[in-house]
Write a structure and sequence with these properties.
Layout lengths: L1 H18 L3 H8 L3 H8 L6 H11 L3 H5 L4 E3 L2 H13 L3 E5 L10 H13 L9 H24 L2 E7 H10 L9 H24 L4 E6 L7 E6 L4 E6 L14 E4 L2 H17 L3 H11 L4
Parallel strand pairs: 2-3, 3-4
Antiparallel strand pairs: 1-7, 2-5, 5-6, 6-7
Helix pairs in contact: 1-3, 1-6, 6-8, 7-8, 9-10, 10-12
Amino acid sequence: MSEKFNDIGDRLRAFRLGSNIPPEIIADKIGVSRAALYRYEKGALPKLETLEKISEVLSVSMTTLLGVGVEYLSSCVSFMERMRQIEVETRHISAMFGPIAYLLTTPQYDEVLNDVLKESLPDDLKKCSETLKVVDNIMNVLRERKRNYMLKKPGFLSLMSASELQRFVGNGFVGTYNLDNQLVKKRIVIAKNEVEHIIGLIEDQPIGVQVGLLKDTMPNSSFQIFKQPKRDTIATSPFTLGDLPNVRLGVAMITSAPEAVKLHTDITSDIWGRSLKGTKAIDYIRKNILID
């Protein structure tokens, strides 16, 4: 039962971060201290009426907060935080997340991603302090996810789309088309470096990492399968972190429903079976994507 309480606390933290409302204001609105709010996030069980107040303040349904059925998340911050929480207990990840699965990217990718996310904002939001804070929060959660991945080293199966990699290299690692030509050239080099890094992973075959390259059409939305000791979890997302990223619009979903797990596992097996692997994947990338 305590594990269920911890799950509620994890969701509470994720939705609190995504709301961009200071914790002291949330605590005041639900009639508790900030310390009590943090205790709830760590697994302490609040009263039912307190949970109802929390759901109202955070604009999230009680069923989602309790983890009944499907979790719906319209905030990229909330979604990335839930990924971080889930990955802590994950033994294996299968990801179809383009153009390159974030957890497999280089430190240079993180250095540039912050600028790319801010470039992707509409002009009227590029100087909005609240919006810029959201981007900073996303970056903080992403860095924590990568640190956790490097520490725990779960198995990782990455499915990549050849067309998405081709677009990534063609556009460069950019957040908008309206950039200086010299900057675009630098970002194209960065994109190529990331693809070269993936080639290195395919060549070196580090323990637990598998990469498949699909030339065929891929699903439009990304998904990840997290295999955990007591359950498997599926996350689907409209949010993207590559060229022309989207961290503002859409609704992500998380569920452990057996049917959803089976369907996504079947799709993963099908895509993996049809993917190029090893030297065939490397040859295709060098001949069709990393061309000058």
